[in-house]
Design a protein that fits this description.
Blueprint: H1 9-33, H2 39-62, H3 65-83
């Protein structure tokens, strides 16, 4: 998104957080309907992700966009190589 839509770093982080929330919420609630829920795991994931979101949103507002774009590009390339 940072390359295609020319978004700033803080806009990209905000969009990513919103997208993750909208994607994970139904996925997390679906197992409840089948009574196959590990509540300890859900609690640990939630407790671990909340500080990450707070830290990432604060850092992205102060972090220059150019190095962030390079870092994101490297992550995308490495992810693609790993999938091969």
């Amino acid at each position: 998104m940072i390359f295609l839509y020319r978004m700033t770093a803080s806009e990209m982080v905000g969009t990513d957080i919103t997208h993750a929330f909208l994607l994970v919420t139904p996925t997390g609630l679906l197992p409840i309907t089948y009574a196959n829920v590990n509540y300890l795991l859900i609690g640990n994931l939630s407790v671990g992700s909340i500080p990450g979101v707070i830290i990432r949103s604060k850092i992205s507002a102060k972090f220059p966009a150019r190095p962030l774009k390079g870092f994101v590009a490297i992550l995308i390339i490495l992810s693609g190589i790993k999938l091969l």
